[in-house]
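User: Sequence recovery, please. Input:
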């Protein structure tokens, strides 16, 4: 497609895009995320990342913003280091809250959309195609579902998906690594994606290898290879210091935890190649892309085909789109297929590659002059449809009355422990729970208390010890250190070896609690009849 004579900054499509960004941010912030900010932070992973973000902000309050930001970068991390860095910046403007943290998720998605628009507008010359492609992330099912890893969950999966999306757009701008400046920009985008989530390093290793094979099969091999190496060098310079700083954490988390440690065998599903491919494909299609995305991509292809003009486009512009889309789809797909531990949450990393491939198909089918009116109507129609789907997802109810009552009970229990810890002037509050849960352990109680009372108290978890089976001696020793103990009356079947071991030990644990602690609360939560025990010297309110 030929480049438009009108500068991009003055083109109406850009202002439509800006209006789209403003609308989606307002709808998400005022309606979508608010359904989740009033309940405790579910799904264990985000408890860690919210804790790191709030810690960074408190450090910034005490020592200054620059010191707080530096603290977030050098604080040891096994998975990534930019979530708390960016959250501290957002908190400095808006104050610390879950709403502000989730707003960062949407800002990351907007950055991906903006990069897509700019890349496609510049390389294809069609603002209509660029606008339609930029709206596609709104049509994804995964970010707007009540599931782990969505935009309502402050963890690395959503941020990493958006960072991969930005990197894929930068890769398109390199024009097959013929453009040196954009190759440097791609290297910078890769570096930021790596620091957002260290695991993406395995994806980018395959992406760079695939890009090299692509270059070797084409023309201008020397120039393009030089630019590819330059991009890799930029990414290395950006990431190497922090990866080296966190090398032991990364090694223990990924190699020991995922391959040779005791938890690796517990988490491994033992899938063969066929099962792995089926797992990745089904979760990509159903959980992350969804029916609406597939329908919009298909109908968009038909509309772009029908609405094309009579002048042929520069067909060469489509080749980098197809190549980049294939690389960003295949690389994470290969890694996740071969990995022995399967998680449906991380499959969202394949979505950026799919979106670039959809844009490549649209471009190939359209092949029209940029100013053709039907194409503008198609682009606007796709954007409107995606925004409508997004809006519906933000406005639909999520929790029924019974579930909301359970969530309120979790908050009330956290408030109880908060008040009693303060009344007893405990230097730290040590909490034990007899099963793996995202609702009652010390880490989530600390987050709930901070979000409700703006006090960052030292709550420490004595139990669980992890998902692996503990010894009886370890359980009893940790009980002896605990100030508060949540104990289940019955022994329901647990998901993990820790749960099953504590079910066996429940008579001994209950007897110890009755001798050394006192029962403070009896309640039913998520189908479990439970008792909260506390040290005898801790006063009731």
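Assistant: Recovered sequence (541 residues):
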């Amino acid at each position: 497609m030929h480049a438009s004579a009108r500068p991009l900054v003055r083109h109406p499509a850009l202002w439509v895009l800006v209006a789209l960004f403003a609308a989606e941010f307002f709808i998400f912030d005022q309606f979508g995320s608010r359904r989740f900010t009033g309940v405790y932070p579910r799904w264990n992973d985000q408890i860690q990342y919210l804790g790191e973000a709030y810690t960074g902000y408190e450090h910034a309050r005490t020592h200054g913003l620059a010191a707080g930001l530096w603290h977030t970068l050098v604080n040891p991390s096994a998975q990534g280091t930019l979530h708390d860095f960016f959250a501290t910046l957002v908190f400095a403007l808006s104050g610390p809250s879950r709403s502000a943290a989730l707003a960062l998720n949407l800002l990351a998605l907007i950055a991906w959309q903006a990069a897509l628009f700019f890349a496609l507008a510049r390389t294809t010359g069609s603002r209509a195609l660029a606008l339609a492609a930029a709206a596609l992330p709104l049509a994804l099912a995964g970010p707007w579902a009540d599931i782990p890893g969505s935009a309502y969950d402050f963890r690395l999966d959503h941020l990493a998906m958006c960072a991969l999306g930005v990197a894929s757009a930068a890769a398109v701008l390199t024009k097959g690594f013929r453009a040196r400046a954009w190759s440097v920009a791609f290297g910078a985008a890769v570096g930021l994606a790596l620091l957002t989530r260290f695991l993406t390093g395995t994806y980018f290793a395959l992406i760079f290898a695939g890009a090299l094979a692509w270059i070797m099969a084409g023309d201008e091999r020397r120039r393009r290879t030089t630019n590819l190496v330059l991009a890799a060098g930029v990414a290395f310079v950006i990431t190497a210091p922090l990866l080296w700083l966190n090398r032991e954490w990364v090694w223990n988390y990924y190699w020991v935890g995922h391959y040779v440690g005791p938890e690796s065998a517990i988490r491994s599903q033992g899938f063969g190649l066929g099962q792995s491919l089926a797992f990745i494909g089904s979760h990509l299609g159903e959980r992350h892309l969804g029916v609406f995305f597939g329908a919009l991509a298909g109908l968009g292809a038909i509309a772009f085909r029908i609405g094309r003009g009579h002048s042929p486009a520069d067909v060469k512009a489509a080749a980098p789109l197809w190549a980049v889309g294939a690389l960003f789809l295949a690389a994470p797909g290969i890694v996740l297929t071969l990995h022995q531990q399967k998680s449906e949450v991380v499959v969202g990393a394949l979505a950026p590659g799919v979106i670039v491939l959809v844009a490549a198909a649209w471009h190939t089918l359209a092949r029209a002059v940029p100013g053709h009116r039907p194409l503008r109507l198609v682009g606007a129609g796709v954007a409107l449809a995606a925004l409508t789907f997004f809006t519906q997802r933000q406005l639909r109810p999520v929790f029924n009355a019974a579930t909301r009552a359970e969530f309120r009970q979790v908050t009330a229990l956290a408030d109880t422990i908060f008040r009693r810890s303060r009344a007893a002037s405990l230097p730290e509050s040590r909490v034990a729970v007899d099963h793996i849960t995202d609702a009652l352990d010390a880490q989530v109680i600390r987050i709930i208390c901070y979000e409700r009372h703006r006090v960052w108290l030292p709550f420490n978890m004595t139990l669980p010890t992890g998902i692996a089976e503990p010894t009886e001696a370890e359980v009893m020793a940790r009980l002896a250190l605990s100030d508060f103990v949540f104990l289940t009356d019955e022994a329901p079947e647990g998901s993990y070896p820790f749960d099953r071991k504590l079910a066996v030990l429940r008579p001994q644990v209950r007897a110890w609690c009755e001798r050394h602690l006192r029962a403070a609360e009896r309640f039913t939560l998520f189908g479990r009849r439970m008792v909260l025990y506390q040290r005898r010297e801790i006063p009731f309110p």
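The chain has two domains: 107-395, 401-535.
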